[in-house]
Amino acid sequence: MTGASFVAGDWGTSHLRLFLCDAQGETLDTVTGPGAADVAGAFASTFDSLTERWQHDHALPTILCGMVGSTIGWTEAGYVACPAHPEKIATACVALRDGRIHIVPGLSCRNRLQAPDVLRGEETQILGALQLQPDLRAGQHLLCLPGTHTKWIALTGGAVTEFLTAPTGELFSVIRDHSVLVADRAGADALDGGAGFERGLAESARFPHAQLVHRIFECRSRRLTGDLQADATASYLSGLLIASDVRGALALFAPSAATAIHVIGARALTGLYAKALASMGRETRSIDGNAASLAGLTHVHRMQSRELPAHAQ
User: Fold this and answer.
1) What angle in degrees, to the nearest 10, is found between the helix axes of 168-178 and 233-252?
2) To the nearest whole percent, how much of the chain has pLDDT over 90?
3) What's the pLDDT tens digit per position in 222-258?
């Protein structure tokens, strides 16, 4: 395809998104495919079949991130220990097919709670945020990447110094789908940020020092007593969980949270976190997760094009 320069891809556990890009990182075409858990090890053939029409003239350089570099991936691209500068991440990419394909590594740290922590895929969104918001390259900043496993990232001088994982989304799904606390699973939309979510935030704020485990049964008790509508229980649960996540992270990362907190991800979920942060008096800036991921992949590709060394396999 005219103008095509490279292929970028986010190969997660359940989904694959591939982008055909020009030299400036603008998208010329896209294709989706099965995630790392569903390809049964057939990464090479899956990739080739999905990109065949893009590479009929010659094999385009490719940069991939996500679970494609995990123990269940195409090849293992380990973890870069924090503090991690962008250049450190780029040089740790693993090369396949004589360097035509590079896989971005994850990050590891010992977090504020003195526990080991890891991430994979989010490092590319962080790199993209540094490109989209250049002010993040100086000083201290706190990033929030909400999701199944929400990541709180501390940046100093453009480097990831540490991070903390909160499995907020996973807890929500487990409680909603596998407990008696939420009655109306089919009709409840916890991403609407409506009255149920607002009330969860407000009730959490009334007793900010209460432990989350002492609050979540309210999803059932308030419904049984008529204090909460059945179709609002999932949103109420979401409000309690996100409020607890945000309040705890702000307490742990107070120095890094002195400026506006950048929230990176899908619009609906970043909106909920922005609302929770605002309820606690914090300013936020939202960055689209897909845009950040593509900007990060593009940045790594450019660094690789400058012939930074990479670990070959």
Assistant:
1) 150
2) 86
3) 999 999 999 899 999 999 999 999 999 999 998 766 6
- Tell me the domains of the chain and their CATH numbers: 6-136+291-312 (3.30.420.300), 166-288 (3.30.420.310)
Give the pLDDT band (50/70/90) at residue 58: confident
* 84-88: long-range pairs with CB below 8 Å, 24+: 84/123, 84/159, 84/160, 85/158, 85/159, 86/127, 86/130, 86/158, 86/159, 86/299, 86/303, 87/303, 87/308
- At 15, the pLDDT band (50, 70, 90 cuts) reads very high
pLDDT given for residue 308 in this prediction: 46
Nearest to 16 by CA among 27, 8, 24: 8
**Strands (DSSP E) found in the chain:** 6-11, 15-21, 27-34, 62-66, 79-81, 94-96, 101-103, 106-110, 116-119, 140-145, 150-156, 159-166, 261-265, 284-288, 311-312
Instruction: Report the C-alpha gap between 127 and 87 in whole angstroms.
Output: 10
